[in-house]
């Protein structure tokens, strides 16, 4: 019995020594993988070159990702909480990596996806879910609206946000969301205090431009870092829905007053019974319209043709298009009628 115990003890010591050796090797590999990943980091893409790490280590990609130690790395994971934060190349890489490396993705797998993409795990899950089950979000809708206001074509927007399988699917989701959003404003699931509401109103007065809430949203997120972007955007939409738009009559009045008094915004604001800041904004919009080339996208022309067919007046046509003045719409409608 004594001899057997001594052999068993010896075997145990050998097993422990082997485990220690394996653990030491794994630690050394982890340090080496992390160093190689840091060295291969591409600033432009925001990711490490894992193909080069695999070549240097001569072990499978997934094993490299498992060995990577974020606590030793000098590279910080990116925070991309909304699909609009993702570059088209990142989305494409995310989809192909998950498809090639995993079947049914587990929680541990998402950790590896985050390491590979150098993006926080929860953000990878969100972006991949959007690609797998495309849907229009308020943030994506706002981003697309800004691109449309800047005359970006649908094919370019589709390439920028390759979430939907077809351009038509993206476009339909956008317009359906817009119709729903206009007719049924989303409830804001947060109790805003009077002071917070006043602060948002101040930011709207300072940074809001008709059809472009981006700068207001950026400043509001800085002012309220603990409130979600969706809630802040909902509050901004609620406030801006009450802000009167800039009409052609507004521009005509301000033009005449600028020619009469110069850029005395305080005086002009009094004349039009509005704030100096809004008077200046009306003038700025007028100048931007003068500089902007009057190019018409095919979608805008089709909207005008429908307006002509339905007997819609130029003021309503201008509102539907959103990027052209009433005068510009009137001129183009007359041209379309004559052709």
Radius of gyration: 29 Å
Estimate the strand proportion: under 5%
Order of helices and strands: HHHHHHHHHHHHHHHHHH
SS element count, helices: 18
**pLDDT averaged residue by residue:** 80
The biggest beta sheet reads: none
Shape: elongated
- Specify the helix fraction band: 55-70%
How many domains? The number is: 5
How far is the N terminus from the C terminus?
108 Å
Residue stretches low in confidence (pLDDT < 50, at least 5 long) are 1-5, 179-188
* Quantity of strands, as a count: 0
List the helices and strands and how they pair.
Blueprint lengths: L1 H38 L10 H8 L3 H7 L20 H14 L5 H11 L3 H12 L5 H12 L4 H7 L6 H17 L10 H14 L6 H10 L5 H12 L7 H14 L3 H7 L4 H16 L6 H13 L3 H8 L4 H13 L1
Helix pairs in contact: 1-2, 1-3, 5-6, 10-11, 10-12, 11-12, 13-15, 14-15, 16-17, 17-18
What does this structure look like?
By secondary structure, the chain is mainly α. The chain folds into 5 domains: 19-72, no CATH class; 83-132; 138-183; 194-240, no CATH class; 253-338, no CATH class. The protein has helices spanning 2-39, 50-57, 61-67, 88-101, 107-117, 121-132, 138-149, 154-160, 167-183, 194-207, 214-223, 229-240, 248-261, 265-271, 276-291, 298-310, 314-321, 326-338. α1 (2-39) crosses α2, α10 crosses α12 (229-240) and α17 packs across α18. It is elongated. The termini are far apart. The model is unreliable at 1-5 and 179-188 (pLDDT under 50).
